[in-house]
Design a protein that fits this description.
With 257 residues, the chain is of the alpha+beta class. The protein has nine helices and ten strands. It has helices at 6-15, 32-41, 51-57, 64-73, 92-98, 179-184, 197-206, 216-227, 245-254; strands at 4-5, 26-29, 60-62, 102-103, 116-118, 125-130, 133-139, 143-148, 156-158, 163-164. The strands form three sheets. The chain has a six-stranded antiparallel β-sheet with strand order 4-9-5-6-7-8. A hairpin with a 3-residue loop joins strand 7 (133-139) and strand 8 (143-148). The longest helix has 12 residues, at 216-227. The protein is rod-shaped.
Length: 257
Amino acid sequence: MAKKKSKWIVRYCEAQLGRPYWRGTWGQHATPALLVRMRKKFPESYKAADFEEQANAGQKVHDCCGLLKGAMMCNTVNGDPEGELKPYDKNPQMLYDAASVKSDDMGKFPKIPAYLVYNSNKSHVGVYVGNDEVVEARGHSYGVVKSKITDKRWKFWSDYCHADYSDYQPEPTPAPVKEDEVKYSELQVCRKGSTGDAVKTIQANVKVTVDGVFGSSTEVAVKTFQKNHKDADGKALAVDGVVGAKTWWAIIERWHK
């Protein structure tokens, strides 16, 4: 069975924002004839006074699962559904059951675009679109709207069995930063040729003339200091005559001893 990329599913759902909710629809354009068919099938859901106006306006219409069916069956965000409905005709409970990744722990929701979220009895489904937002066809009084993933209505989540997530690239997890790099990485890196107050601080600590000019004698003194001191992890400092974050840590650490 063909799948569609997660980015397309998100794009399709967001393009439907502000459009009407019609129970039992999946992206058709509203017409008086469609309204007659839907009223016959779901008479209790088609009593609002604005249905005739919406039917004449001809906008695309969906129910909550219909957003997903439309994304799978429409080739453009404003196009009509094409092909057979049956492969995609699942209610929220069926979507959850068909998922390969699912949970009732919203605290572990992975925030992957085109993942699905469900209410407490899995009678309603929304599509996560990123930035802590969900697109949902919420009901006729609302239409297709955005809500927050933090909304307490959302109690379950899953992947979407018809989505291809290969175009989703999670942000890389940054490598852990050591305390000394956090604390001292923004200090000026000083080496031969540097001048200024930072150099004076270094010179005072490596016991050479304090003139604010990082010359040859200061470089030699820094190398001697590096040979005799360790970094925050207890490892030997690089003996290069350059005062970077690790050597700054060793210099400042001396003040606490």
